[in-house]
Amino acid sequence: MRFTTQASRRDAPELSLVPLIDVVLVILIFLSVTTTFSQVGQLRIDLPEGEAQTAQEPETIHVQITAHGQVFVEGVAVPTQDVAALRQALVRQAPAKSDPVVVIEADAATPHQRVIDALRAAQEAGLAKVTFAVEQPQ
Questions:
Q1: Domain residue limits, the chain
Q2: Does residue 131 sit in helix, strand or coil?
Q3: What are the angstrom distances between the C-alpha of 135 and each of 14, 52, 124?
């Protein structure tokens, strides 16, 4: 005697990958046809020659920051670690110079916050031109 019915003996459903592969190939073909590949190369430019006049060196205010976070403005130590004292030191140096460039010379081991404080102090002092001094590798 058979106790199982036809409904319980159904085959397990199969997942057909052929339509999925077809769709992926169509998308791949579409992307490869519509994509443009441009080669970016160097432009060869022949610059004109001329006699350069000696450019006037911009006036600078040097801010040195040591590895321990001590700050010096034009070689004079800033007594406290806050931004206001550094801003005052920059303001004292700025009136003697017209539109100076602040050059921040920070040690490689300087805490990042001290460099950010120097940038903030220069901004608060109204000195918009700021640059960083780096050491050239030998």
A1: 60-132
A2: strand
A3: 67, 27, 27
Q: What number of CA atoms fall less than 13 Å from residue 9's CA on the CB side?
A: 5
Q: What is the third-level CATH fold of 60-132?
A: Nucleotidyltransferase; domain 5 (3.30.420)
Which residue in 46, 42, 61 sits closest to 104, CA to CA?
61
User: 3-state class of 87 per DSSP?
Assistant: helix
User: Please, which pLDDT band fits residue 53 given cuts at 50, 70 and 90?
Assistant: low
Taking CA atoms, 2 is separated from 5, 9, 10, 11, 131, in Å, by: 8, 12, 16, 18, 91
Q: What are phi and psi of 53, to 5 degrees?
A: -85, 150
Tell me the pLDDT band of 99, cut-offs 50, 70 and 90: confident
